[in-house]
Amino acid sequence: MPLTPLDIHNKEFTRGFRGYDEDEVNEFLDQIIKDYESVIREKKELLDRVSELDDKLTHFSNIETTLNKSILVAQETAEGVKRSAEKEAKLIIKESEKNADRIVNEALSKSRKVALEVEELKKQASVYRTRFRMLLEAQLEMLNTEDWDDLSQTSKEQQEEESYENF
């Protein structure tokens, strides 16, 4: 067990014949006591400081551990979000491709339908043109026949008869 300042202070030396100068020994012991008290005080302060720093180190180690865990959780979450976003992007692309295919197919179908309608209208126009030509040709033929001259002659005769009757 180490000496305390009180042990040093209370220490009694045996005296011999012509021993040490008592004042000089007491003065030296007083100096030792002061230095020893100072060393003990400093040691206690250092131990307190070490204890405080150990507590802080433990605290910061806990914070470090918590932060590392938080970083890992954040990384895992980020990876999960990234995977989810990639899946969603693929679904959106797939849906867009389906819609694009549907739109293209509808456009092709409408295009075919319009082309068929155009062909049908061309046929109808051709039939109409042919019928109209036939009608005109028939009318021209009728105008070129003698029957028309007879009709016009008959009509003139009737007019003349009516004019005589009116007199």
Automatic annotation (TrEMBL):
Ranges annotated as spanning the membrane: none
Main location: cytoplasm
UniProt feature coiled coil, ranges: 29-56
Pfam families named in the record: DivIVA
Key words of the record: Cell cycle, Cell division, Coiled coil, Cytoplasm
Keyword Coiled coil: yes
GO BP term (any one): cell division
Domain of life where this protein originates: Bacteria
GO CC terms, sorted: cytoplasm
Subcellular location: Cytoplasm
Residue ranges of the region described as Disordered: 147-167
PANTHER family, per the entry: CELL DIVISION PROTEIN DIVIVA (PTHR35794)
Family: Belongs to the DivIVA family.
NCBIfam families noted in UniProt: DivI1A_domain (TIGR03544)
Protein name, UniProt field: Septum formation initiator
